[in-house]
Write a structure and sequence with these properties.
Layout (H helix, E strand, L loop, with lengths): L1 H13 L4 H15 L4 H4 L4 H12 L3 E2 L8 E6 L3 H12 L7 E5 L11 E4 L17 E4 L11 E6 L2 E6 L1 H6 L3 E3 H5 L2 E2 L12 E2 L2
Parallel strand pairs: 2-3, 2-4, 4-5, 5-6, 7-9, 8-10
Antiparallel strand pairs: 1-8, 6-7
Length: 202
């Protein structure tokens, strides 16, 4: 927890130097506090907020991979979200080369990634979203969870909120921080919950 707040302080000190850092600090504080003023939210486009969510998800996941492993951000399909995510990864100089971004040509390449963003432009998809150990799948496509996806980023009352498939994430050997769960919506069609160890406290 101390490391996370220290990171937020560093981002705040850089906010006036770079608009990307300002946006990153805002969304990071949203993940910690669970709320944000409406006028702050309107300062950014939905695609920017979604990109920062995807970028920050890595800090709120317990991975089956070894500690300090390299985080591979992958994008299937190019759009404003994937391009912004790419810039966030490139601008994080504190990551010491632990963060990598690249595009993939098809979902069969998802096994090389930790986080896979699937652009809505790729839908409808003729096959199910891959469910692989240690691979988090994310999209803004409506009803993404019905395709086997793990997190859908949805506009809810003028806010972007993550819709999380806890059972799918658990079966992929990952767990989610309670900080993220506080601002998330749990997929209504899912049967698993907090008591089956799908979450963790940080």
């Amino acid at each position: 927890m101390w490391h996370f707040h220290r990171t937020l302080y560093r981002l705040l000190s850089q906010a006036l130097k770079h608009p990307v850092h300002t946006m990153l600090f805002f969304i990071s504080s949203l993940l910690v506090n669970g709320e944000a003023r409406a006028e702050q939210s309107r300062a950014y486009d939905d695609y920017q907020i979604k990109a920062v969510y995807i970028y920050r998800f890595a800090s709120f996941i317990r991975w089956p991979q070894a500690p300090n492993h390299q985080i591979q951000y992958c994008a299937y399909g190019a759009d404003n979200i994937s391009q912004t995510l790419h810039q966030l990864v490139l601008n994080d100089l504190s990551a010491n080369k632990r963060l990598v971004f690249h595009y993939i040509d098809n979902l069969s390449q998802a096994e090389q990634c930790e986080l896979v963003y699937i652009s809505p432009s790729q839908f409808p998809i003729s096959h199910a979203i891959p469910q692989l150990s240690g691979v988090l799948t994310i999209s803004g496509y409506p009803d993404f969870l019905d395709y086997g996806g793990m997190i859908e980023l949805r506009a809810d009352k003028k806010r972007i909120r993550p819709i999380i498939a806890l059972d799918v994430i658990k079966h992929a050997n990952m767990a989610i921080s309670s900080q993220l769960l506080r601002i998330a919506i749990i997929g209504k069609s899912l049967t698993s919950g907090l008591n089956d160890n799908a979450s963790l406290d940080q």
